[in-house]
Structure formats: structure tokens, C-alpha cells
Amino acid sequence: MLREILSFSWLDRGVRELLEFFGMDVASRAGGSVHFFIYDVIKILILLSTMIFIISYIRSYFSVEKTRRILERMGGIKAHVAASLLGTVTPFCSCSSVPLFIGFIEGGIPLGVTFSFLITSPIVNEAALVILLGAFGPRIAAYYVVSGILLGVAGGYLIHILKLEKYVEEYVYKMKMGQGQVGELTRKERFDFARENVRDIVGRIWKYLLIGIGIGALIHGWAPEEVLSKYAGPDNPLAVLLATIVAIPLYSNAMGTIPIAEALIGKGVGMGTAMAFMMATTALSLPEMILLRKVIKPKLIGVFTGITGAGIIVIGYIFNIII
């Protein structure tokens, strides 16, 4: 019973029966697209709201100031791992990660450590994890999360080794974050914080969700499977590279791109190709670069883009080989 609930087979069956009741053939292109859209919208909203609430309640114990103090006490690779893990439970797209990234630099956190946070934050988060679990199962979700964290750790550590602090705008180091004390929250305040987080985050991203699911539904019902399988399948050695390059100018969050990746994989696109597209769309975007330009110089933006893009391409090829 529990397994059926968690697998959402009850929802799949319910949507199918509802469409058939209204005379729609779910085996047709149009019927398959409508079924995909309704099923994914309901499933993702349930998973999203539940997981955001749970993680937000846990996160209420860790203010930005407290997190900054924890990172300050760490050194070496441990700090990069901690920052990357922190990125998994914070903002849901690259542009909302940038303000925290700026705050960490202003607060004296080493540059490489802040980049470990910036790389991982948009790629991996609790909502994306839950949606990945529902779409691909625990094995793929685990590979994705581990890959995103390792990319953040490796990318940030490499930037640390290159010693690129001189490419941060000078005024940033002259700014200081406040050192105010954060009071302890009551259980009710934590509950209210989690509930407001659900309302705020879902309110901000629902449009991306609907657009992503809508595109995924069109691909699911109408995209030519033979063409996608031939040119974007795991046997095409250039597919991952092209998917990453195409994705960089785009802008979305993980929740909006997962339904697209799910539909592409269903049409024969390689798992690694779809994952590379999703990672590049969320971690590298033009709006993010514009925001970053306010605090770091073009050369550092280029290094960040090159390291992250290369890492995503490597991950994509590994996915295509092992999955």
C-alpha cells in the first residue's frame, strides 16, 4: 500500500480513468500529452510542497549568519564539501543563489568555497531530488545528487588553487555583513517559517513548472522518437557536448527542466545527454552571469563557466556510459 502511494501509481491510474471518462484516448498523441501534463503537475506539486516544508523546518535551525560562522571555522576540502552540501538545501535557481554567494564573499568566506556553493546550489536541491525520485527512481536521483555535489566541490577547489581573488571587484572586500545575533525560534515559529517557505517558493516557481511540464508533454506526445534517438541518443558522441552548449543561453530551474528531461529520455535521448542539458540550464545562464558581473570580473566569470561546463560534459558522458 505504502509503495503504491509513493510510486504515484494511484495518480497515474486516476488521471488515465478520468481522461477516458471524458472520451479521450490516452494512447493517442494528444491523449498521451494531456495525461503527461496533468499527472506531472499534480505529482510534482505534491512532492514539492511536502519536501520544501520538511527541509525548511530543518533549515530553520541554520541561519545565514550561523552557516557563515560554520564555514569560517572550516578549512581545506572540508569547507568546500560543507559549502556544496549547503547548496543542496538553499535557493532553487542560479539567480537566487547569487545574492547568498555575494554575502559569503562580503563576509570573508574564501572565494573557492563560495563557488562550491554557487555551482551546487541551482543544480541540486531538495525539490529537484524529490522530483527526480518520482521521475527516474532512487538510483538515478542518487547519481545526479552525488554528481552535482562533486562538481561543486571540484569546481570550487580548482578555483581556490588558481587563486583568482584579484578578479573580484575591489569594493566587495570593503563591505561587511552584519554580525547580529539570531534569536532561537519556537516550534510554532519554525512551523510557520516552513509553511511560508512552501507558499513563497511554489508561488515563485509554478510558472516554470507549468512551462517545463508543458514542453515535456509536447515532447512526450509529438516529438519524433526515431530522430531524437538517432541524433541525441547515447551512441552519438557529440550529443552531450551539443546539449550543454545549447542549454547555456537558456534559463530555468531544476524543477522546470526535469519534466523536459523525463520526456526526452522517454523518446530515446541518452540519460547523460538529458542530465547535461538540465545541469547546464540551471547552473549556467545569462541572467546569472549578469548578476555575477556586479561583483566579479569577466575573466573569473569565464573560468567559472569553463570549469562548470567542462564538469557537466564529463558527468553527461559518464551517465551515458554507466546508465
Descriptive report:
Helix 5 packs parallel to helix 7 and helix 6 packs parallel to helix 16. About 2% of the residues have low confidence. The chain is built from 17 helices and no strands.
**What is the makeup of the main sheet?**
none
State the secondary-structure class. mainly alpha
Number of strands: 0
| Helical run tally | 17
Strand content: under 5%
Protein name: Permease
Subcellular location: Cell membrane
Family: Belongs to the UPF0718 family.
GO cellular component, one term: plasma membrane
Topology (elements, then pairings):
Layout (H helix, E strand, L loop, with lengths): L1 H6 L1 H13 L7 H31 L4 H10 L2 H12 L6 H13 L4 H13 L2 H11 L1 H25 L7 H5 L12 H36 L2 H8 L6 H9 L6 H13 L4 H13 L2 H7 L5 H25 L1
In short:
By secondary structure, the chain is mainly alpha-helical. The chain has 17 helices and no strands.
Question: Can you tag this structure with a few keywords?
Answer:
transmembrane, 77% helix, single chain, transmembrane helix, 323 residues, globular, cell membrane, Permease, membrane
